Amino acid sequence: MCSRAYRTRAGAASGAAGVATVGTAASPSAAIAATGETVRVRVAARDMVFVPSSVEAEPGDRVIIELVNEDPATVHDLLIGTARTGRLALGESAELDLGVVGQSMSGWCTVVGHRQMGMTFDVVVAGAPAIDPTAEPAEGDHGHAAAGDPDA
What we know:
This protein is mostly beta strands. It has strands spanning about 5-10, 20-25, 35-45, 50, 55, 60-70, 80, 85, 95-100, 105-110, 120-125.
């Protein structure tokens, strides 16, 4: 299910007051020419899924995800490429800035077992190759269930 994202022109007001910004993801898409458009989407973590579970963007768009934990039972986070939010408790939110995108990417919750239970998120870039849902990030060992809490 794709998101109800909205696009803004560079320099437009974001309206993200009270949201922690996490930083940008370094990626091979750095060579893509920026469109000046920003795709911003609010994503809820609840019931072991991300809602919506994907967002669509054009090559060269900047993608910003506002992750909100709506799950009263546990903490959640989101890792996409090299960008990652911290662990969020119920009601907390964080902004994940992926920067300018040129390729489709998959992300997931890094809490042990959550990815395997379906907590995945896709950034779908128009005209880019299909996402391999089993692919790990190029750097590091971010998706393995045996990995501990990087915030600990």
